[in-house]
Please model this.
Amino acid sequence: MASTAEGQSHRFTPEHADRLAARLLGQMRTRLGGLELNHARRVAATVSCRGDDQLVSAALLHDVLEKTDTTREKLLELTDDEVVVELVSLVTRDPREAYREYLQRCASDPGAYALKKADLQDKLVTVDVTVPAHVAARLRRQARQRLQLLNLFARWKEELR
Model:
């Protein structure tokens, strides 16, 4: 971590992550039509009960690699927090990656699983929707199926332990 003038360690906090997310996501919209930043804040609020500031910070930034031109390297430079960037990377899907493989990867890490689960759950319950009802219904059906698969992969992982 970066050091302050007094020699104390400077931590990347959820407050820093929120400001960075606001800057990077700006007025971008989700596929349901709401603000990406509001979605990120709801996901962060959901995972905050775990008491892990790095997970909350990652939740606030979880879409920046996928939906902006920010690279992993640039995000690391901006946060100086490898754990946060690794969590964001884990929940960032490579467009060449099959969705099933992506969900398996998310389910294999406790933090990534909690974050992706909160992400998908938010899509099911948000009222921040501006797209036509039939589009929202299709996107929510897709999110529900993906959440079921994610949970299934997580259970399989536990059973194999």
Notes: The chain has nine helices and no strands. The chain has one domain: 14-160.
